[in-house]
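Why should sequence recovery work at all? Because a backbone constrains its sequence more than one might expect. Tight turns favour small or flexible residues, buried strands favour hydrophobic ones, and helices have their own preferences. The token representation captures these environments compactly. In the example below, the structure is given first.
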């Protein structure tokens, strides 16, 4: 279905390095300081003005795993259900399951605080390219140059935060062709206003995921507060009264996570043959365990449903990517493009001296990675704490690792720390470490036992690492010992350990901390090797290739996605699939017809409220629609707007043809999928009787 936080973190970590796609047709995820205004005017006859862009920028916000937008002057924000589903789960209990029943705040007093959630609003963009590149001195190795840039970036971010009070991130664009400083206002008081039932948001389940026609009300509303009052905003998207029409120009503004459209062939082959297959085996193993756990009862299903959704979504995405990378036509196209650039560089002595050898360096790093990628994935995948090492799938291990590393990292200068421990990232680290999300012992035992068993199956029972981790026990027995024995389920205990430092982390008093301590040397070593042999080498050599293209095309090119604010443009438009034309719109009547087609069996069953309100719903109301906008993971929750800056839809997915969008965009078949504003309003009024919310949206 969608692009959840777990998927976004995996994809952004797997594909770290950007390249430079050349825009064609409606292709492109454009930075707000480099929108192709002339192309849009020429194709669609619309002038994109500075004022229009500024309003769109300020009306859009970033969630931890996606996008949202202000839709009223009183701080109301629209996003997807699947972007807030973890919050829904945390707010639910065995006696009050909002995922099953939905939630409507009938007044502001009824709105529920989303603990730990924050939203970022982009305030400004500043070019800091000269300063970052100026830190690299002649004669530096790739590792030294990477460290110098990182130190300078850290200094820029710290200075900006201190001066402005805003979150400040230096973003690498065009693989070092540009460095931009993005400053964000962060909102920390977020409250849930409305979600439909999970089954309505995810109607059709995994079979319909990444397909069209679709019939999903994948929406949610939250409200932003400051000083315990709804925030007042000047820039928000008014709700369109007419919606979009077939062929109409529409824009999508959001935070696409990552694309890799001009990675070298060697890099793509490494992903296809080494990295993605291992991830797929891990995800498929976790899916089996989750389904077995959920079969135990309704409460177990409530606890595990969100994670299963993410896993199934991820599996479908990665399988689609592998299929794309096994497509001879796609790979032949990549080889031709690569050879053309090679020929261009070889033909110019200066370019050959400056950029030659880049492909060979990247290929060597990827070839060598095959020998230790398994260790990296199991011990330290160098990615967000949302995704845990393949062998230790429990947040309790994440807490333990953070606590073990915290004393050492605190002793280092900020620029020399692991990135997640730097001052500019410290707030996010602490929010994760001191999370109050509920922990269920039986659920954590199941997940950890499964991941330990997966480690055993991948390495073999007699491997020294497996023996050391399991200590002669079965994966189930070792998981039970660790989960039952750790005190890290207590937030206050985590604070005590963090404050005490090595005195407590080296005491041997907690088995989970002891495990994290025991494998930390190996984990750090494999991470260091990856960062020096792959990250630093690819940063330097992709930058060479990027500069070669950047010299010729400059800002006529769009940079690969970086989970920062981008604008895409396109049109509402159907497409042909398997020889048949797929119209761009579905209707609410089609929802009920599809449920009937499958005799209301899961996952095509509708919640009781929807069945009882069927007569009140206008069946002709447009429900979901497709457009040619170029999107990727991270765009979930993005507003789809018309040229007047009015909201016409809400991005929640792409079609099956879009799964290779990381590597290739094809306007003839790539489609983004939105929930139509007319359906959202109809559902609020006539299914949920949420008239106060609907009135607020329409009064805007």
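From this structural description, the recovered sequence reads:
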């Amino acid at each position: 279905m969608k692009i959840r936080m777990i998927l976004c973190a995996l994809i952004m970590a797997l594909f770290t390095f950007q390249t430079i796609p050349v825009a064609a047709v409606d292709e492109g995820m454009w930075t707000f300081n480099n929108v192709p205004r002339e192309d849009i005017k020429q194709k669609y006859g619309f002038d994109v003005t500075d004022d229009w862009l500024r309003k769109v920028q300020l009306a859009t916000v970033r969630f931890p795993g996606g996008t949202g937008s202000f839709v009223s002057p009183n701080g109301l924000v629209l996003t997807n259900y699947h972007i807030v589903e973890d919050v829904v789960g945390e707010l639910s209990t065995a006696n009050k399951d909002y995922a099953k029943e939905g939630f409507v705040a009938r007044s502001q007093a009824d709105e529920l605080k989303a603990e730990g959630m924050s939203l970022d609003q982009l305030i400004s963009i500043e070019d800091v390219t000269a300063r970052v590149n100026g830190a690299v001195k002649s004669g530096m190795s790739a590792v030294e140059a990477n460290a110098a840039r990182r130190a300078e970036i850290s200094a820029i971010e710290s200075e900006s935060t201190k001066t402005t009070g805003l979150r400040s991130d230096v973003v690498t664009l065009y693989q070092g062709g540009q460095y931009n400083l993005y400053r964000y206002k962060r909102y920390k008081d977020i409250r849930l206003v409305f979600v439909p039932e999970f089954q309505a948001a995810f109607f059709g389940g995994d079979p319909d995921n990444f397909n069209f026609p679709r019939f999903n009300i994948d929406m949610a509303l939250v409200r932003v507060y400051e000083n315990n009052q709804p925030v007042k905003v000047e820039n928000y998207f008014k709700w369109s009264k007419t919606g979009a029409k077939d062929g109409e120009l529409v824009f999508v503004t959001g935070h696409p996570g990552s694309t890799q459209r001009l990675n070298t062939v060697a890099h793509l082959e490494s992903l296809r043959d080494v990295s993605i297959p291992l991830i797929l085996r891990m995800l498929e193993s976790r899916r089996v365990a989750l389904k077995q756990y959920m079969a135990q009862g309704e409460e177990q299903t409530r606890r595990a449903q969100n994670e299963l959704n993410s896993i199934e979504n991820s599996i479908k995405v990665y399988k689609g990517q592998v299929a794309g990378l096994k497509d001879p036509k796609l790979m032949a196209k990549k080889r031709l493009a690569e050879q053309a650039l090679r020929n261009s560089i070889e033909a110019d002595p200066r370019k050959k001296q400056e950029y030659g050898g880049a492909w060979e360096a990247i290929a060597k790093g990827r070839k060598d990675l095959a020998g230790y990628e398994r260790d990296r994935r199991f011990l330290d995948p160098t990615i967000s704490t949302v995704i845990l090492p393949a062998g230790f799938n429990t947040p309790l291990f994440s807490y333990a690792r953070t606590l073990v590393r915290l004393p050492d990292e605190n002793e280092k200068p900020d620029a020399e720390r692991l990135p997640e421990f730097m001052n500019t990232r410290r707030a996010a680290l602490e929010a994760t470490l001191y999370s109050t999300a509920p922990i269920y012992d039986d659920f954590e035992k199941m997940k950890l036992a499964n991941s330990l068993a997966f480690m055993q199956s991948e390495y073999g029972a007699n491997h020294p690492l497996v023996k050391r981790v399991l200590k002669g026990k079965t994966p189930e027995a070792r998981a039970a010992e660790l989960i039952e024995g750790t005190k890290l389920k207590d937030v206050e205990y985590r604070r005590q350990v963090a404050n005490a430092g090595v005195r407590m982390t080296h005491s041997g008093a907690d088995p989970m901390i002891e495990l994290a301590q025991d494998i930390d040397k190996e984990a750090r070593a494999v991470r260091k090797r990856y960062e020096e042999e792959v990250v630093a080498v690819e940063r330097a050599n992709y930058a060479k290739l990027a500069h070669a293209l950047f010299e010729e095309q400059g800002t006529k090119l769009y940079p690969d996605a970086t989970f920062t604010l981008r604008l895409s443009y396109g049109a509402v438009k159907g497409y042909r699939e398997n020889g048949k034309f797929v119209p761009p719109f579905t209707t609410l009547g089609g929802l009920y017809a599809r449920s009937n087609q499958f005799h209301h069996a899961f996952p095509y069953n509708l919640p009781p409220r929807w069945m009882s309100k069927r007569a009140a719903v206008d069946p002709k109301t447009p429900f979901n629609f497709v457009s040619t906008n170029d999107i990727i993971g991270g765009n979930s929750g993005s507003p789809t707007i018309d040229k007047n800056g009015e909201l016409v839809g809400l991005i929640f997915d792409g079609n099956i043809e879009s799964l290779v969008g990381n590597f290739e965009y094809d306007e003839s078949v790539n489609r983004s999928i939105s929930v139509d504003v007319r359906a959202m309003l109809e559902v609020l009024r006539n299914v949920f009787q949420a008239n106060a919310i609907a009135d607020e949206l329409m009064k805007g």
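A few observations help interpret the result. The mean pLDDT is 92.
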